[in-house]
Amino acid sequence: MSFLTALRASASGLTAQRLRMDVISNNLANVDTTRTPQGGPYHRQQVVFSSLLADRVGAARSAALDDAAGVRVAAVVEDPNAVRIVHNPSHPDADAQGNVQYPDIDVVAEMVDMLSANRAYEANVTALNAAKSMALKALDIGR
């Protein structure tokens, strides 16, 4: 694995984990959102990752596999079934029976996911710094 490949792999991980943290933050911000522009309550979102190496091999591309290190965001998917019903007839979004649809977002699970994304981000920063340090040491040897 070359120096630039290591940097690209860490950079792709940083980008992917930052998007994951953004999506989790959006889920937490909308935990009580009962009305969206599309209609209905907010739906919890999740990030789906894909390995760049698997993409490269699966597509049978001719480029070197060393250039395929890293991760990419394959999709951000919604969970359309993640709705909880609360009886609150005084709510402006209540239906005829007095029920309101809220997003079914578990705040504790979202915080655990946020901590996981944060740790993965920190690990990618550490890997990036290690690759940089090794490159600088190699330059010092050449002097």
Helix content: 40-55%
What's the number of domains? Answer: 1
Q: What's the number of extended β-strand segments?
A: 4
* Radius of gyration, CA atoms, in whole angstroms: 22 Å
Spatial strand sequence of the major β-sheet:
1-2
Shape: elongated
* Low-pLDDT residue spans: none
Described by strand count, sense and barrel closure, the largest sheet is:
2 strands, antiparallel
Judged by helices, strands and strand pairing, the structural class is alpha+beta
List the main descriptive attributes of the protein structure presented here.
single chain, 143 residues, 4 strands, elongated
Would you kindly provide a written description of the structure presented here, covering whatever features stand out?
- 15% of the residues are buried.
- This protein has one domain (3-141).
- The protein is built from three helices and four strands, in the order αβαβββα.
- The strands form two sheets. Strands 1-2 form a two-stranded antiparallel sheet. The chain has a two-stranded antiparallel ribbon with strand order 3-4.
- 48% of the residues lie in helices and 17% in strands.
- Helix 1 packs antiparallel against helix 3 (107-141).
- It is an alpha+beta fold and 143 residues long.
- The longest helix is centred in the C-terminal third of the chain and has 35 residues, at 107-141.
